[in-house]
Amino acid sequence: MTELEFKNRTKDIALRVIRLVETLPSSHSAQIIGKQLLRSATSVGANYRAACRGKSTADVLHKMAIVEEEADEAIYWLELLIESDIVSEKKLSVLVNDINEIVAMTVSSIKTLRSNRNGESKIQNLKSKI
User: Fold this and answer.
1) Which tens digit of pLDDT belongs to each residue from 78-104?
2) 24, 34 in Cβ contact below 8 A?
């Protein structure tokens, strides 16, 4: 997957989460979970964009670790929505799967970056594909 495709995919997920949060019930717990989900899911794409502008391998690794953490956190909030019976698992299963794929690709990229850490010039090639 190219850098642009990954940017578009993370933005699409953020937009889907925005739409989901807008449909949540007005109960206190649903709204709190929704705000947390909105924050973490929109942070994924923003931090990936920041990683694409990283100044060094260490900088990119740090920002990609944030992408991983925020995506994993978004899954947590989705799981809470499901397990608290606020939203059905059927409605969220595709979104959970898509974010799990983002986590897996991010972890893979982090491993690749770490294994190539000695060659700073290699980062240009690694940044172009996730």
Assistant:
1) 999 999 999 999 999 999 999 999 999
2) yes
